[in-house]
Specification:
421 residues, mainly alpha, 4 domains
């Protein structure tokens, strides 16, 4: 025991010794940071300032010496590896995008997606919505959360190591809230959240219980769909579902957990069918040149140029009104419906989600009808009209909306109708 006490004292002395050049100044300039470090497990383990920050002080002052996960990995390999394979591990690149062709960009941004030593790209994922933002909004509005990929401090804080910080579900709230993914609000106002708030962890689960079981940093455990709410194929989803049932079975009967999750799956399919119905309306309008404005008559999409984009790169700016309605439907209301169902929150699943989703479809149908009526005022000549209808039909075939047999049948009906006239 005496040996351990001596060893601990030596480690603390070592930490103080290696940091002695930093401490006098920083005790005056950043006293809270010094105090937090001195109260941390890092101080007790002899981890000094330079271990994480390096020794190039000028680089630090320029903001070019960010402490990323590579600094933490040697000592926290298990957490590092499980984090990297999880959804948090790709969080940065899902919210970033290559800025090399944009005017006025800060070259420092390259470090978010390229290895600082080799310049090799760390990901090929891009985000059109980020690319439409200013550099400042990109940093605070997008990557304040998406930095979770490369910075342990996103959850653990900069200099403190007390695990109470990350065991508190509020640590998840700063990112998992808002109109598109309000998991925090859903959990907090569900029965799980109410019981946890009144009786604590002995009575109900929090975010970490279900998504970081046993302290795992793999937050993707048990998830059966993409971050955009697209269901995984069964061979990938099945083992994940078994893992989530095992987590739920710590409190519930496995059969009950299975039924509840399966109900969420059904709601996901029903909700996606509504989204697809809305997409078909917009695609048909685009085929007929009736969007206002059409893609070729507005600022180009940062990834796709002057093309119609309705997938995960759908924008909420520089677009048509009906596409803006689709953005709300997909990004906000569809997400709230399915996440509300899986988080056992009836108000989010129905009123904040499903009801809004269905009213979105009403609005999209009405706007589609208005655009079609406006388009009839400039009807093309009859021969041009049949060509336009055949083009619409061809586009539907190429998108997979109709089969080859249906295409040939409908094409013949159009030609027969034209010939009779």
């Amino acid at each position: 025991m005496k040996t351990l006490v001596i060893l601990a004292a030596l480690l603390c002395f070592a930490a103080t010794a290696v940091a002695e050049e930093c401490i006098p100044c920083h005790r005056e300039k950043t006293p809270a940071a010094v105090r937090q470090w001195e109260e941390s497990a890092h101080f007790k383990a002899g981890v000094g300032c330079e271990k994480c920050h390096g020794t190039d002080h000028e680089k630090m002052k320029r903001g070019e010496a960010r402490v990323d996960m590579k600094a933490c990995a040697p000592c926290h390999k298990k957490a590092f590896d499980s984090h990297r394979q999880s959804r948090h591990g790709m969080g940065l690149h899902s919210g970033w995008g290559c800025t090399r062709n944009l005017e006025g960009r800060n070259q420092r941004e390259c470090g978010f997606c390229h290895d600082k030593d080799s310049a090799e790209p760390l990901s090929t994922v891009q985000c059109a919505r980020f690319l439409k933002q200013s550099a400042e909004m990109g940093e605070i509005g997008c990557n304040y959360c998406h930095n979770v990929e490369s910075s342990c401090a996103s959850c653990h804080s900069n200099h403190m190591t007390d695990l109470k910080i990350v065991r508190d579900p509020a640590s998840c709230a700063k990112c998992h809230m808002g109109p598109d993914h309000p998991q925090w609000e859903m959990w907090q106002t569900s029965l799980h959240g109410t019981l946890y708030g009144t009786l604590g962890a002995k009575a109900a689960p929090n975010c970490q219980t279900c998504h970081m079981p046993g302290g795992s940093h793999d937050v993707s455990i048990g998830i059966t769909m993409s971050s955009g709410g697209i269901a995984y194929p069964s061979e990938k989803a099945a083992p994940q579902r078994e893992q989530m049932i095992a987590i739920c079975s710590q409190c519930h009967a496995p059969a009950f957990a299975s039924r509840e999750l399966a109900r969420g799956d059904t709601i996901q399919k029903q909700s996606m069918a509504i989204v697809k119905e809305a997409e078909k309306i917009i695609l048909d309008l685009a085929d007929r040149g009736l969007l206002d404005p059409m893609p070729e008559n507005r600022p180009p999409h940062p990834l796709s140029g002057n093309k119609l984009v309705l997938d995960s790169q759908l924008l909420y700016e520089d677009t048509s009104h009906i596409e803006r309605l689709l953005f709300k439907m997909k990004k906000y209301d569809y997400a709230r419906t399915i996440k509300g169902a899986y988080h056992q929150n009836p108000a989010y699943a129905h009123w904040y989600g499903n009801a809004e989703l269905k009213m979105d479809l009403v609005d999209i149908k009405a706007e589609g009808s208005r655009l079609r009526k406006a388009g009839r005022g400039a009807a093309p000549a009859e021969s041009a009209g049949i060509e336009a209808e055949l083009k619409v039909l061809r586009n539907r075939l190429e998108r997979g909306d109709i089969s080859e047999a249906d295409y040939q049948k409908q094409k013949q009906l159009l030609l027969d109708k034209f010939l009779k006239k």
